[in-house]
Design a protein that fits this description.
Distance between the termini: 66 Å
Helix content: 10-25%
Number of helices: 10
Strand order of the largest sheet: 10-12-11-13-14-19-18-17-15-16
Structural class: alpha/beta
Shape: globular
Mean pLDDT: 94
Largest sheet: 10 strands, mixed
Radius of gyration: 21 Å
Length: 386
């Protein structure tokens, strides 16, 4: 194998910290919030998770790209990260499903990457200073210029990032269509049960595996854009509403939680991640920005109703303020690392949510029971009673 010359690249943070490495993926420059993910696997799912819109993602695992990329492990229609930071990019990936290298995948998508930096030092810095605005560049060698660009970026707080990732119009999700990206020839779809429930999925940054899991539980899913009106959702005479994950500050997209407020009590509701925060806001709670967020596949969560601990997959930089919870909401789960809110349930209406990802692919799967719980909620509150 012949090595090609490596082009220099720089990662500059708003506080003046600068890292030098070499470029991979697309040549260019992007700004974003620099965060880290502690998962050892699933880099392709990370790249295509719409919740990462506006962020430059650092992988703490030192060797990334050794499985290449494939057609199945995508979670949406494109890569959403602004940039990708790794300690070492695998030079010779090998996997039977591989259709391209990680380098080729990022280059084709116009996303820059940087390798060869001390990702441990970067992660420790973020854990101390908090998530920072940054810029990744292989075209501007001037450190002061790059730091200035990082400082001038507007950031995520108060911004509506949902509008960038949601679908434009409602659509019925067909698991057998090519557009669904649900299953591939490498892994044909399993036998699916006959649909028993009609579910509206509010798309704030929907991941494909959410739709797979709903369909595997017997749900016929219609996806609605985040800006859909409550009356339009209810007009479809659905059995339940699912609130998806998504990027950024939930307070920056008030139209979403205002719609949820109008849906409460009229249809069973299940929310995850950003949907969890939106349910909290709809009921009168407030949210705040975490210092460096929770991103990875190893977050311990305590279920307060059972006393059991789940290892969960997470990706969020904001949280529901527990001190702001109204009487209508009870906390059901907490994060064992920092005691932040991980689950809510309405005390009178059929609605619950979790901050983590029960649909997690490639894992863990400790929280898979939450989809059957949603099914039971719809059984308990059938449409005929409304």
């Amino acid at each position: 194998m012949i090595d090609t010359p490596k082009k220099p690249a720089i990662l500059a943070l708003e506080d003046g910290t600068v890292f030098h490495g070499t470029a991979f993926g697309a040549a260019g420059e992007r700004v974003g919030e620099v965060v880290f993910n502690t998962a050892m696997t699933g880099y392709q799912e990370v790249l295509t998770d719409p919740s990462y819109c506006g962020q430059i993602v650092t992988m703490t695992y030192p060797l990334i790209g050794n499985c290449g990329v494939n057609r199945q492990d995508v979670e949406s229609r494109r890569i959403w990260v602004e940039g990708f930071v790794v300690r070492e990019l695998s030079r010779i990936p090998a996997n039977w499903r591989q259709t391209a290298t990680l380098d080729e995948y990022l280059a084709r998508s116009g996303v820059p990457g940087i390798q060869g930096i001390d990702t441990r030092a970067l992660t420790k810095h973020i854990r101390t200073a908090g998530a920072l605005k940054g810029v990744i560049s292989s075209v501007d060698p001037n450190e002061k210029s790059l730091v200035r660009k990082a400082r001038e970026w507007v950031g995520l707080v108060g911004q509506d990032m949902v509008k960038h990732v949601t679908c434009a119009e409602p659509y019925h999700w067909d698991p057998d269509s090519a557009e669904s990206r649900a299953w591939t020839p490498e892994e044909p779809r399993p036998e699916l049960p006959e649909p028993r429930f009609r579910v509206a999925a509010i798309d704030c940054g929907m991941k494909t595996n959410i739709l797979r899991r709903l369909r595997q539980e017997g749900c016929d899913v219609t996806v609605f854009p985040a800006h859909a009106a409550a009356n339009d959702v209810l007009a479809a005479r659905l059995n339940g509403v699912f609130l998806s994950n998504g990027p950024g500050d939930p307070a920056g997209a008030p139209y979403v939680f205002e719609t949820i407020r109008k849906l409460l009590g009229k249809v069973p509701i299940f929310g995850i991640c950003l949907g969890h925060q939106m349910l909290g806001l709809a009921c009168g709670a407030t949210t705040y920005k975490l210092r460096f967020g929770h991103r990875g596949a190893n977050q311990p969560v305590l279920d307060l109703t059972t006393g059991k601990i789940e290892i969960t997959s997470q990706n969020h930089g904001f949280a529901v303020d527990v001190a702001s919870l109204p009487n209508a909401l009870v906390q059901t789960h907490i994060n064992l690392n920092d005691r932040t809110s991980e689950g809510l349930e309405h005390t009178k209406l059929p609605a619950f949510s979790v901050q983590y990802h029960p649909e997690a692919s490639p894992g863990p799967h400790d929280a898979a029971y939450l989809f059957p719980r949603f099914i039971k909620l719809m059984e308990k509150h059938p449409i005929s009673t409304r």
